[in-house]
Amino acid sequence: MRDFDYAAPTTLADAVMLLSRGNGAARPLAGGTDLIDHVRTGRLAPDTVVDIKKIAELNVLEASPQGLRLGAAVPCYRVYGHAAIVADYSALADSGHIIGGVQIQTRASFGGNVCNSGPAADSTPSLIALGAVCVIAGPKGTREVPAEDFCTDPSKNVLQPGELLVEFRIPARAKNSGSHYRRFIPRNEMDIAVVSVAASVTLDDAKQKIIAARISLGAVAPKPLLATDAAAVLIGQVPTDDILAKAADAARKIATPITDMRGTAEYRTHLVGVLVTRVLQAAITRAKGEKLDYRPGH
Question: Is residue 189 domain-shared with residue 130, that is, in the same domain?
Fold first, then answer.
């Protein structure tokens, strides 16, 4: 591993200053579960590593009537261990449970996972499905970017030199809402999604028709996708098998997967339809207030 300078600022202003001074050669460290490995293997060669774990704004975890604030440095175990998240933002808990193993989850954060900007990242589809906004701080001030627009290509995103992802802000959940995240992997030893899907739905007062929905796909394009047309199929409809199949078909149409060691493009396209159907069924079950018989990662 090459030598680098290390800094651990305690204020957001100092972190932005250090990152700006680095002019692209400084890297923020949240959990470090990917960054340290990338430095060790030579994939990244930062001059300075800026540890952001001690900054209060990046460690906020607050559920209120206005919604959820999730700091970029909050580790996964705090996400799936938070009662309000489990109850109201279930897809986030689903994601947090399967980002690495238990040891990784004590360090790894949703912010770091999103900033790595992998097409198969487990956190990004859930954030997209729940309508999250990414709050970014930089030398020019603060700006907000919808989660679906944060990633731009594999390992690339909208962050500019000197900018730092501070937190995710997620709107308050409407009554009769439910969400779910699920992925397919070929075996437990390969912890990367072949296809992943997150969905959020809201039912009417009778819990019969879908009145709002968002669906996101992972690992089937250069970046996680918001499947707008697939969600539109559901609005105002009773979620029959036929309606769910139409939504699944619409989702398949926007997938542009590659063929690699984890699966062929044809196989991945088929899986999109399977997972969209299952994830929607699970989200609807939760929206009805019914118990979902699901074990994270299965």
Answer: no
User: Could you give the number of structural domains in the chain?
Assistant: 2
Whether 46 shows a pLDDT value over 60: the answer reads: yes
The confidence band for 101, taking pLDDT boundaries of 50, 70 and 90, is confident
pLDDT given for residue 1 in this prediction: 67
> Alpha-carbon distance 168 to 163, whole Å?
15
Name the nearest CA neighbour of 181 among 75, 71, 86, 101.
86
Q: Check residues 296 and 174 and name the one with the higher pLDDT.
A: 174
Distance of CA 180 to the CA centre of its chain: 12
Pair (253, 129) in one structural domain? no
- Which residues form the domain of 70? 1-173
Nearest to 93 by CA among 281, 289, 296: 296
200-239 pLDDT, tens digit per residue, is 999 999 999 999 999 999 999 999 999 999 999 999 999 9
- Tell me if 298 is assigned to some domain: no
Q: 223 with 93, same domain?
A: no
Statement to judge: residues 127 and 196 lie in one domain: no
Q: Taking phi first (over 0 means left), then psi (-120 to 50 degrees means alpha), and beta for anything else, what does residue 23 get?
A: left
Q: How many CB atoms lie within 10 A of CB 127?
A: 30
